[in-house]
Amino acid sequence: MEEFFTINNNTTAEIVEKKSQFIANLFFVKNKEMAENLIKETKKKYHDARHNCIAYRILTDNTIIEKSSDDGEPSGTAGAPMLDIIRKYSLCNVLIIVTRYFGGILLGTGGLVRAYSSATIKAIEGAEKIYMCKGYEMQIEIDYNNLEVFKYYCKKNNIQITNITYLDVVICNIELEKHIKEKIIDDINKKEIKINNVKVLCEKYINKKTISM
Fold this sequence. Notes:
The chain is an alpha+beta fold. The chain has 2 domains: about 5-125, Ribosomal Protein S5, domain 2, CATH 3.30.230.30; about 135-210, Alpha-Beta Plaits. About 30% of the residues lie in helices and about 45% in strands. The chain contains 5 helices and 10 strands; from the N terminus they run βββαββαβαβαββαβ. The protein has helices at about 30-45, 80-90, 110-125, 145-155, 180-190; strands at about 5, 10-15, 20-30, 50-60, 65-70, 95-100, 130-140, 160-165, 170-175, 195-210. Helix 2 (about 80-90) runs parallel beside helix 3 (about 110-125). The model has no long low-confidence stretch (mean pLDDT about 95).
C-alpha cells in the first residue's frame, strides 16, 4: 500500500435511536496489541452496557489486519457495517468501538445497521484525517552557517525537519516523500544546497498533510 488515511485525534460521538444510546469511540492504533488493549479498557469502562461492538483496520509490515465483532447483536448488524465504513474512508490504524445501552425497544436488523453506521460516521467526521504516504527518513549533516538556508529549502520543498541536534556540526533528521529524495540528492550534487553528509536511515510512512474530514 503506497498511501492511506489515518486520524490525528481520538474522538467520541453519541446518537440516540428509539431510546437506545450508542456511544462511538474512535481511536488511533499503532498495532493489533494496542487495539486489543483499548477494547479491554473500553469494555471495562462501559461494563454495564448491553453491547460493545468493534471494528479495526491496521497496517503492519505492508499487511492489513482487519477484525470486527457484533458482540451479541444479530450477525452482520454492527461490526461488519462499521468495518465497511472504515474501508470506505480509506482509513488504516484505527479502531472504532460502539457501545449500546439498550432502551427497551427493538430496532430490527435494518435499524441496527443504520444506528451503528451513523454512530461510526459521526465519530469519523469529528476527527482530523492524516494523509500518509511512503517516504524516507534521512539524516543531514550541515554547518551552522548553512542551517537557516537549509530550513528554508525544506519548507519550500515540503520536507519536514523532525529533529535537530547541535554538535560540532548540526545534525538534522528529515522526512520526505519518495520523489523528493532524488531531488535533494541531485541538489546536493549540484551544490545548490551545502550539505556535509547525507544518509538514508529508513523507508517509512510519513505524514503528508492533515485535513478535516
